[in-house]
Write a structure and sequence with these properties.
The complex is a heterodimer of chains A (743) and B (155). Chain A has 743 residues and is of the alpha+beta class. Chain A has 19 helices and 30 strands. Chain B has a five-stranded mixed β-sheet, sandwiched between helices. Classes of the chains: A alpha+beta (743), B alpha+beta (155).
C-alpha cells in the first residue's frame, strides 16, 4: 500500500471527541459498527475498565470486551499509558509511537508506560481491516491518530488546570508532564487527570497539530523504550511465557511436503522421563512433556511411517526449469502496459537485451523459533505468543477452541524477530497450540525447534523474471518488458481480496511501478501453483523485483554509460524523490572517485512502502567469493521520527537482505528441504557484515515505511558491484551456492 | 539430584544428566534470559559463562557442570566486565528485537574480561558464533569497543 494512499487518512476520519473517566483521563477511539475501515472516533469513556496487564493469566474479560478501547490513559500519579496496538519485533515501533504521542501530549517521556493492546476492531489497521503489524506502515498509519490523541489529552489537561486556576486556557501551556499557568502557576498531569477525565471532549476542529518546525520529540533519537529488558534478560518473549502447570510440547511434523501420518508407535516416546502424553494433531504428532528437553527426546523416540502426499515429488531445480519455460511465453495477465513494446522488441535497429533473473524460496529464520502458549478452558481461551497478526490469530483460535472470538484473548509478547513469518494468514502456530491445550485440558507451550521453524513451510516464493529491453541509439530503453513468474502469496488465503483481475499486487510490486521514464513498458505475470506454502518475507515482492529491475537497468547502462548518470537521465521531474536520493547517494558514496584497488562499486535505487532508498555497495572478491565491505544508504522516508532507529532499520534490512543475497535458499528434492539449521542456511555473521552508513533525506512530509525499504536495493547493488569488478553478471540468487560464487 | 552454582546461588535439580543446561535454566529454574536459537551451538543465543568462559548452554549436558561456576545474563551484572558491557549496550542503544542480545552480551563480557583492548579482529573472533538476524553487528562492535575503553579506564 502506498504512502500516498495512507496520507489520505485524514483527521476527520477518526476524531470526534475525547473523554474521561473517574479513574483518570482516557482518550479512546471507537469504530462505528457500520464502518468497515478503521474510522476512529474518540468519545467520552465509560467508567474505566481495569487496565489489562501486558501478560499474565488473570486478565479480566471486561478489559478486552470494553466498548471503548483506550489508546492513552493518564492516571492520578501522572503515569501515561500508551495502549500499544502494534507488535515490537525490533523495528522500534514502541519507541516511535511513544514519540508521536508525546510530541503533542507534552508528557515526560520517562513516565510513559506501554501496555499491549487486546484484540479489538478499534486497533485495526486503517488500510487493511485487521489488527496486525506489517507492511512498514505502523508509523504512517499512527501519525495522525496518535498525535491527535496526544493533542486531545493535552487540551483536556490544560482545560482542567485553567478551570482550577480560574484563568483562560489560552494563558496555560503544557510541558514535560506539567501544565503552567499565569503568575508562575504549575501543576502536574497526575493532579489534573481526574478532573480532565470529567470534561467533555474537545472539538477536534479546534485541535491544532504542531508544524514540523516546532517538533521537540519527533526527529530525536530517543532511546528504545523497552531496552532494559533486552539488556538484562528480563524482557518477555513468547518462548519465555510460563504458566503454573504448563506443559511443553514438540511436534513430529511431516518430513516431506503434504505427507500424512500412516502409522505411529509411541511406546518408546512415552517411556522417556518427563513425557506426559503423545497426541496426534493435524499438524503432526505432539509429544507433551514436563520440559522442552523431554519433549524433544520423546519426539526422537517416536517411530512414524509417513504416507507421501501431493508434494512428495517437488524438486526446486525442476520448478526452476518450469519457470524458465513460462518466462519465455506470453504472460496471461498484464499488470502494466504503456505504449506498445511488441514492434520495438522485434526491431533490429534497436539493441536487444534479454535476461533471466531467478531467486529461490527463502525461510524467515527469526532468531526466536516459532512458539505459542495456549490455555484452553470450556468458556475462554488465552493465547500468549509473539505475533504480527492478532485479528486472524484470535479468529483461528476461536475456531479451534470451539469458542466465540470474544472468548479468546491474545496476549502479545515481544517478538524475537518477525520478518513476516509471524503474520500468518492461517495462524499455524496458534492453531496447533490451542488444539493441543483443548485435547489435554491444560496450558501448553508448543515449541518449534530451529529445524521445525526452517522446515515448517511458509517461504518467500521462488521467482523467475524475464527482462527484455530495446535500446535506442541514445542507449536508453525505448521498450521494457518484465515477465514475473511465481506463486501468489495471497491466493487461497483470507487476504486474496488484495488480488485484482488475477494480479496479486505483491507479485508485481516494484516491477509494475518501474520509476524510469520509458515510453513503452509491459509488465506481465504468470501466477503459478506449487505445493509450497508462500508468505510475505521482509519487503515481500520487492525482494525479487528490485533484484531483477535494478540489475537489468545496469545491464542496459553497461554499454559504456555510467550507471548513476544513466539512472539519473531516466528519472524525470515526476520522480523528484528518486532524483534527490540519487544525488545524495552520489555525493556520500564518492561515486565519481574511483573505488579502492580491488574493489568494485554497485548501485541500486528502489521505492517500496512509500520510501525511496538508494544504496551503493563496495565489494571485493576474496578466495573467489564476494565480500561486501561498505554500504552507503540514502533513504527518503518523509519525516524522520527517530534517526537512530531509521539507521538501525537500514543496517538491519541490508544485513538481512545480504544474508539472502549471499547464501539464502530453501531447496527441495523429493518434497524435502535440504536446509534445516544455520549450518545449511547460513546467515551473515559479524565478520562479514559491511559497515553501513545511512543518510536520511531531510523532509517535512508525513512519514513512510522504514522497516523494509532498505532491503530491496542490497542484492542488486552487490550484483552490480560484482559486475563492475569482474564483468561477470550474476543473475541468480543466492550468489554463493555450495560454497562457491557462480555468475 | 544435582547441584548447580548459578549466579552465585546453589540450585538443586532433579533431571536427567543429559539435559542441556539451557533447558534446565529455562524450563526448570525459570531463568529465561538465556535463549534457545538452534540447539546445535550454531547461533550463540544460549551463551552463558562456565567458570568465566563463554559457553553454549544448548549443547552442554548438566551432568558435566557440577562444581563449575555458571553465570547467566541474569547474573552478568555481578562482574565489572558485565556491567560495562550492559552500560555500553544501553548508551549505544544496541538491541533491536533483542532475542540474541543475552548471548551477545555474555560473549562480549567474556571477551573484555580477558582482553581490555580488543581489536576488530579479536571481536570478530570472539563474536562470530553469535548470530543476529536483525543484523546490528556494527552497533555490537562499537559497544564492545566502548565497554573495553570503560573497563580499561577503571582498571
Amino acid at each position: 500500500m502506498s504512502a500516498r494512499r495512507l496520507r489520505e487518512v485524514s483527521r476527520r476520519d477518526f476524531l470526534r471527541g475525547a473523554g474521561g473517566a473517574a479513574g483518570g483521563l482516557i482518550v479512546g477511539f471507537t469504530v462505528p459498527a457500520a464502518t468497515r475501515w478503521g474510522a476512529m472516533a474518540a468519545r467520552a469513556a465509560a467508567p474505566a475498565a481495569p487496565a489489562a496487564p501486558a501478560a499474565g493469566p488473570q486478565l479480566p474479560p471486561a478489559a478486552q470486551a470494553a466498548e471503548v478501547n483506550a489508546f492513552v490513559k493518564i492516571d492520578p500519579t501522572g503515569v501515561v499509558t500508551l495502549v500499544m496496538h502494534k507488535s515490537e519485533m525490533g523495528q522500534g515501533v514502541y519507541t516511535g509511537l511513544v514519540q508521536l504521542l508525546a510530541e503533542e501530549l507534552e508528557c515526560d517521556l520517562r513516565r510513559v508506560r506501554i501496555e499491549t493492546a487486546p484484540v479489538a476492531a478499534v486497533y485495526n489497521n486503517p488500510v487493511f481491516p485487521l489488527q496486525f503489524t506489517g507492511g512498514s506502515m505502523s508509523i504512517s498509519t499512527s501519525w495522525n491518530p496518535l498525535r491527535l490523541a496526544g493533542a486531545a489529552a493535552r487540551t483536556l489537561l490544560i482545560e482542567a488546570a485553567a478551570q482550577r486556576w480560574r484563568v483562560a486556557p489560552e494563558s496555560c501551556r503544557a510541558e514535560q508532564g506539567c501544565v503552567y499557568g499565569p503568575n508562575g502557576r504549575k501543576t502536574d498531569f497526575g493532579r489534573l487527570a481526574i478532573a480532565a477525565g470529567k470534561l467533555p471532549p474537545p472539538d477536534p476542529k479546534a485541535l491544532r497539530l504542531k508544524p514540523s518546525s516546532e517538533f521537540k520529540v519527533i526527529g530525536r533519537s530517543i532511546q528504545r523504550v523497552e531496552i532494559a529488558g533486552k539488556i538484562d534478560g528480563s524482557g518477555k518473549f513468547g518462548l519465555d511465557m510460563h504458566l503454573p502447570g504448563m506443559l511443553r510440547a514438540v511436534l513430529a511434523r511431516p518430513p516431506a511436503l503434504g505427507s500424512t501420518l500412516k502409522s505411529l508407535d509411541d511406546t518408546a516416546a512415552r517411556a522417556v522421563r518427563g513425557v506426559v502424553t503423545v497426541i496426534t494433531l493435524s499438524a503432526g504428532v505432539a509429544v507433551v512433556a514436563q520440559n522442552t528437553h523431554a519433549a524433544r527426546k520423546g519426539r526422537d523416540a517416536l517411530i512414524i511411517d509417513w504416507q507421501p502426499g501431493p508434494g512428495a515429488a517437488l524438486d526446486t531445480e525442476r520448478l526452476r526449469l518450469d519457470y524458465q519455460t513460462l518466462a519465455a511465453t506470453e504472460a496471461p495477465v498484464i499488470a502494466r502496459n504503456d505504449g506498445d513494446v511488441g514492434p520495438l522488441l522485434r526491431d533490429r535497429a534497436h539493441r536487444q537485451l534479454d535476461a533471466l533473473y531467478e531467486v529461490p524460496f527463502l525461510a524467515h529464520a527469526p532468531m526466536e523459533p516459532l512458539n505459542c502458549v495456549a490455555d484452553w478452558r470450556p468458556d475462554r481461551c488465552d493465547v500468549w505468543t509473539g505475533t504480527q497478526m492478532q485479528s486472524l490469530d484470535q479468529a483461528a483460535a476461536a475456531e479451534v477452541a470451539g469458542l466465540r472470538a470474544d472468548q479468546v484473548f491474545i496476549h502479545t509478547l515481544l517478538l524475537g524477530g518477525g520478518f513476516g513469518r509471524r503474520a500468518s494468514p492461517v495462524s499455524d502456530f496458534v492453531r496447533e497450540s490451542v488444539a493441543l491445550s483443548k485435547r489435554i485440558a491444560k496450558p501448553v507451550q508448543v515449541v518449534w525447534t530451529r529445524e521445525d521453524d526452517m522446515r515448517g513451510g511458509w517461504y518467500r516464493p521462488q521467482w523467475a523474471n524475464r527482462l527484455r529491453a530495446a535500446l535506442g541509439p541514445d542507449g536508453r530503453p525505448a521498450a521494457w518488458q518484465h515477465t514475473v513468474v511465481g506463486q501468489s502469496i495471497v491466493a487461497g488465503t483470507v487476504m486474496q481480496g488484495m488480488a485484482l483481475k488475477g494480479i496479486d499486487p505483491t507479485s508485481v510490486e516494484g516491477a509494475q511501478d518501474l520509476p524510469y521514464a520509458i515510453p513503452n513498458v509491459r509488465v506481465g505475470l504468470h501466477s503459478t501453483t506449487a505445493p509450497v506454502k508462500v508468505l510475505w518475507w521482509r519487503s515481500v515482492g520487492h525482494s525479487n523485483t528490485a533484484f531483477a529491475v535494478e540489475s537489468f537497468i545496469d545491464e542496459c547502462a553497461a554499454a559504456g554509460i555510467d550507471p548513476m548518470a544513466y539512472r539519473r537521465a531516466l528519472l524525470s521531474e515526476r520522480q523528484p524523490r528518486h532524483r534527490t536520493v540519487l544525488e545524495l547517494l552520489a555525493q556520500k558514496s564518492g561515486w565519481t572517485d574511483p573505488p579502492a584497488a580491488g574493489r568494485g562499486r554497485g548501485l541500486a535505487i528502489h521505492e517500496s512502502f512509500g520510501s525511496v532508498v538508494g544504496e551503493v555497495a563496495e565489494v571485493s572478491m576474496e578466495d573467489g567469493r564476494p565480500r561486501v565491505h561498505r554500504v552507503i544508504a540514502v533513504i527518503d522516508c518523509g519525516t524522520a521520527v527517530n534517526p537512530h532507529m531509521i539507521a538501525g532499520q537500514m543496517e538491519s534490512a541490508i544485513n538481512y537482505g545480504l544474508s539472502a543475497a549471499l547464501y539464502g535458499e530453501i531447496t527441495f528434492a523429493d518434497g524435502r528441504q535440504a536446509q534445516a539449521n544455520f549450518d545449511t542456511y547460513p546467515v551473515v555473521r559479524i565478520g562479514e557484515a559491511p559497515v553501513v552508513e545511512t543518510y536520511v533525506v531531510p523532509s517535512a512530509e508525513p512519514p513512510s515505511g522504514v522497516g523494509e525499504p532498505g532491503l530491496p536495493p542490497i542484492a542488486p547493488a552487490v550484483a552490480n558491484a560484482i559486475f563492475a569488478l569482474t564483468r561477470k553478471r550474476a543473475r541468480r540468487l543466492p550468489l554463493i551456492r555450495d560454497g562457491k560464487f557462480t555468475a | 539430584m544435582q547441584k548447580l552454582d548459578i549466579n552465585g546461588t546453589v540450585h538443586q535439580v532433579d533431571v536427567d544428566p543429559d539435559m542441556p543446561l539451557l533447558w534446565v535454566l529455562r524450563d526448570v529454574l525459570g531463568l529465561t534470559g538465556t535463549k534457545y536459537g538452534c540447539g546445535m551451538a550454531l547461533c550463540g543465543a544460549c551463551t552463558v559463562h562456565l567458570d568465566g568462559v563463554a559457553t553454549r548452554s544448548c549443547v552442554l549436558p548438566i551432568g558435566g557442570v557440577s562444581g563449575r561456576r555458571i553465570t547467566t545474563i541474569e547474573g552478568v551484572s555481578q562482574s565489572p566486565a558485565g556491567r560495562k558491557v550492559q552500560a555500553a549496550w544501553a548508551a549505544l542503544d544496541v538491541p533491536q528485537c533483542g532475542y540474541c542480545q543475552s548471548g551477545q552480551i555474555m560473549s562480549a563480557a567474556a571477551l573484555i574480561s580477558s582482553n581490555h583492548a580488543p581489536s576488530d579482529a579479536d571481536i570478530d573472533g570472539a563474536m562470530s558464533g553469535n548470530l543476529c538476524r536483525c543484523g546490528i553487528y556494527s552497533r555490537i562492535r562499537a559497544a564492545i569497543h566502548r565497554a573495553a575503553a570503560d573497563a580499561g579506564e577503571s582498571s
